[in-house]
Amino acid sequence: MKVMVIGGTSGIGLALARHYLEHGHQVAVCGRDTERLRGTAVEGHPRLQAHALDIADPSALAAALARFAPDRLDLFIVTAGMYFNTRDHVLDAATTLRLLQTNVSGLSHAFELAAAQMLAQGSGHLVAVSSVAGLLKDYPGASVYSASKRAVLSICQTYRMALAPFSIAVTAIVPGYMDTAKLRDLNGGDASHKPFLMSEAQAVARIVQAIDRKDATAVFPWQMRWSIALLNRLPLWPLLRRVLPKGRAPRA
């Protein structure tokens, strides 16, 4: 099987790439800085291709696809994403555009390119990682990020409906807090206080399970799923906005 992971040079994307390599598949990882692969378990792997590119650059992504999968692409996973909150920084025009290019239009272009390949071959599986933030009706300080993650769910739903008649599956992954280096960096090096925190290994196992079953949407862990459902039904966020200190509101 040929697997391409956009955002696969670090975090959960890299962990997924490692999983598929360990199971004998050919894998391509794409990210803005392939130097991040140095010293990792996948560095120099004979079945790995690494492509330095930005998801916001469709021409670079098209070239990487043509090199890695000129005839067949079985699984296409997008984990690339940008987080921003207005509690810590000012959301200026450049940052807003960058977030949209990464989380929304970048994903749309990536799915379009991969879908064209899969339609030509008559099968395939598209996967995108969203966030439980996209399920929240209100996310104080990070409403733009939350909206962008809702857009990921909408893009997945649209492609799922459009491609189902052609034997192409689409899965939206909606995780809670995953104990990645990125999350630790956002929290001063320690994310242990985050509710229902999952290890990378736990998250990978759950994501792979959803992919294998070709789930339409996978929201996990279940505790976070039910907590979000409760928050959306109760007027708690106006209170949380007042009492949570700057920089300590929930992040995903």
Which structural class do you get from the secondary structure elements?
alpha/beta
The biggest sheet amounts to: 7 strands, parallel
Order of helices and strands: EHEEHEHEHEHHEHH
Give the % helix: 40-55%
Number of strands: 7
Tally of alpha and pi helices = 8
Main sheet: which strands, in order across?
A: 3-2-1-4-5-6-7
Report how far apart the termini are.
Answer: 30 Å
Please report which band the strand proportion falls in: under 5%, 5-15%, 15-25%, 25-35%, 35-45% or over 45%: 15-25%
Return Rg in Å.
Answer: 18 Å
Principal-axis shape equals: globular
Q: In words, what does this structure look like?
A:
This protein is α/β, with parallel strands linked by helices and 252 residues long. It has helices spanning 11-22, 58-68, 93-121, 143-163, 181-186, 200-213, 222-233, 237-243; strands at 2-6, 26-31, 48-52, 75-78, 124-129, 168-175, 217-220. The longest helix is centred in the middle third of the chain and has 29 residues, at 93-121.
Brief account:
It is built from eight helices and seven strands. The protein is α/β, with parallel strands linked by helices.
Helix-strand layout with pairing:
Blueprint: E1 2-6, H1 11-22, E2 26-31, E3 48-52, H2 58-68, E4 75-78, H3 93-121, E5 124-129, H4 143-163, E6 168-175, H5 181-186, H6 200-213, E7 217-220, H7 222-233, H8 237-243
Parallel strand pairs: 1-2, 1-4, 2-3, 4-5, 5-6, 6-7
Helix pairs in contact: 1-6, 2-3, 3-4
